[in-house]
Amino acid sequence: MKHAFVFPGQGAQFVGMGKELYEGQYKAKEIFENANDILGFRISDIMFGGSEEELKQTRVTQPAVFIHSVISYLVKQHPVPNMVAGHSLGEFSALVANRSLNFEDALQLVSLRAQAMQKACELTPSTMAAILGLDDEKVEEICRSITDDIVVAANYNCPGQLVISGSLTGIQRACEALKAAGAKRALVLQVGGAFHSPLMKPAEEELAKAIEATTFHEPICPVYQNAVAIGVRNSNEIKKNLIIQLTAPVKWSQCVRAMVADGATQFSEYGPGNVLQGLIKKIEPTAVIV
Questions:
Q1: Contact between residue 96 and residue 109 where contact means Cβ atoms under 8 Å apart
Q2: What is the b/e burial string over 155-191, where b = at least 16 CB atoms within 10 angstroms of the residue's CB?
Q3: What is the pLDDT of residue 1?
Q4: 263 neighbors 2 (Cβ within 8 angstroms)
Q5: Is pLDDT at 78 greater than 90 in this prediction?
Q6: How confident is the model at residue 89 (pLDDT cuts 50, 70, 90)?
Q7: Predicted TM-score (pTM) of this structure
Q8: Could you tell me which residues come within 8 angstroms of residue 158 by beta carbon, excluding any fewer than 6 positions away?
Q9: Superfamily of domain 125-188
Q10: Average pLDDT for residues 51-78, to the nearest whole number?
């Protein structure tokens, strides 16, 4: 039996996240306080009792989900992972789990990533939309047909659920075309901008400098990275794929299938919520989910 550990991304957050860990585990409290010091503000206070609006700010959301995920992983007894993966932001949590990154370095990168993405969102009004009930190939085809606007496939979440990303007009035109092509729903999401699209190029360039300056260690197991959907162990390749992830699609369905093909029979999700459990069940119904 091969055990895959998976970590969620932005969107899994909720007010109160991590409070039980903080109050019930001395090790968790220690890591939370370390995170507060690194970030320069008490993110734990926002996580435990802030408003939903505060928690939804990208500069808060991304570190919050990362911190919760990593602490959930570190304080629990579990076998050594045979493979790891994370959905978008979750890839940083996965890289702590397979020891490519230490917690402190990863948190600093996540914080910088969040701020760089926020700045990129402010440069160009943009958004994302969830497309339900249509084959991936049809969604891709319609996105490609809109040549005078930016709209691309961004998150391959599970069969029949693909998120697109782009300019406001590009998303509007694509949603209309996709509904006409038979999509059950084309739902514009309440997000800050067009993540995993060419509009994130300024953020990618900023993050690249920080990633290149950070020490990555030899991992204990492969990480199935969003941009390539294969297991990677080489530190230079991990860095490269982590950089291009901001403008490349999240190939989550493909990552899960690749892990199953490489022997994964059990998946454990660490972090707030259980979004990935539901997606994995739709991608690979025979998988055991914890």
A1: no
A2: bbbbeebbbbbbbbebbbbbbebbeeeebeebeeeeb
A3: 83
A4: yes
A5: no
A6: very high
A7: 0.96
A8: 252, 253, 279, 280, 282, 283
A9: Malonyl-CoA ACP transacylase, ACP-binding (3.30.70.250)
A10: 94
**Range(s) of the chain covered by CATH 3.30.70.250:** 125-188
State yes or no: pLDDT of 175 exceeds 90.
yes
Q: Is 51 a known active-site residue?
A: no
pLDDT at 212 over 90: yes
pLDDT score recorded for residue 85: 98
- Which part of the chain has CATH 3.40.366.10? 2-120+198-289
Catalytic residue among 69, 72, 88, 126: 88
Its sign, for the CA torsion 243, 71, 64, 15, is positive
Residue 230, classed as helix, strand or coil, is coil
Q: Cα-Cα-Cα-Cα dihedral of 264, 274, 65, 167, to 10°?
A: 90
Catalytic residue flag (residue 217): no
Please give the order of strands across the beta sheet that includes 161-167. 151-158, 161-167, 126-132, 185-188
The DSSP code for 248 is: S
pLDDT, tens only, 224-233: 999 999 999 9
Catalytic residue chosen out of the listed positions 196, 197, 253, 268 = 196
Token code pair at residue 194: 């067009």
CB contact set of 137 (below 8 Å; sequence gap of 6+): none
Topology annotation, domain 2-120+198-289: Malonyl-Coenzyme A Acyl Carrier Protein; domain 2 (3.40.366)
Q: Are 57 and 98 in contact (CB under 8 A)?
A: no
Q: Report the alpha-carbon distance of residue 242 to residue 87 in Å, rounded.
A: 12
